[in-house]
Amino acid sequence: MHAMSHHLYPNSYHDLECVLFEPFFNWIPMDKNFLQKYVSWIISPVIYGFIFPKTGFFRYIGSIVNNYKLHWDDLIPFTMPLLMYTFGSVGIIETVIRWLTIIFVSSVIHGTISVNGGHHHNKVFHDGDELKSLDFGVYQLAATFDRFEFQKNSFAVLTTFGQHIGHHMFPTLDHALLPQLNDIIYDTCKEFEADLVMYPWYKLFIGQFIQLTRTDINKI
């Protein structure tokens, strides 16, 4: 799903990672009412917090309703509360509450990093905006910005969706190899007169909230 929608059609109506957040977040430039524009700012942490629980819920419920096949590794998430209860000093209810709190907080962190990681700045291409070219690479560059801070350290890259432009250009490569292709990417961008845009992380963070309020398309 990720490869076939997000990597082929980033920031379009075909990108599930863009549209699955609706109606809470609407990054597509269109007419929006006050609630759509600004309430999303307030509820963002709550929505982020339910990314992990929702994913797990639909996976396990889907196995019952739609006969999805579960595997042994689907039980891994439940090893944490089991160990907490076995070696901890609190009851099962308190254990479950603490476990769910851990999941919620980690989901908030993941959502904050991923949603603000480079795809939803207000200058990034979203469905309806004008494109310089329908070339696949130019489209990927238009729909993806990167951050200065998360380029060189491999741990930071892997934990913050760093080197995201390189990842979209070469999605099947190990991230450890992407720095070796930087010169090729830069030269190719010059050849096609395409912009490889990088911002500080806080500008991408702010730009994502501005994008939620954007109603007019970006023109070339």
From TrEMBL:
Keywords: Membrane, Transmembrane, Transmembrane helix. Residues 1-193 form the Fatty acid desaturase domain. PANTHER family: CYTOCHROME B5-RELATED PROTEIN-RELATED. It comes from the Eukaryota. One of its GO terms (biological process) is lipid metabolic process. The lineage of its organism: Eukaryota, Metazoa, Ecdysozoa, Arthropoda, Hexapoda. The chain crosses the membrane at residues 38-62, 82-105. This is Fatty acid desaturase domain-containing protein. The keyword RNA-binding does not apply. InterPro entries: Cytochrome_b5-related, FA_desaturase_dom.
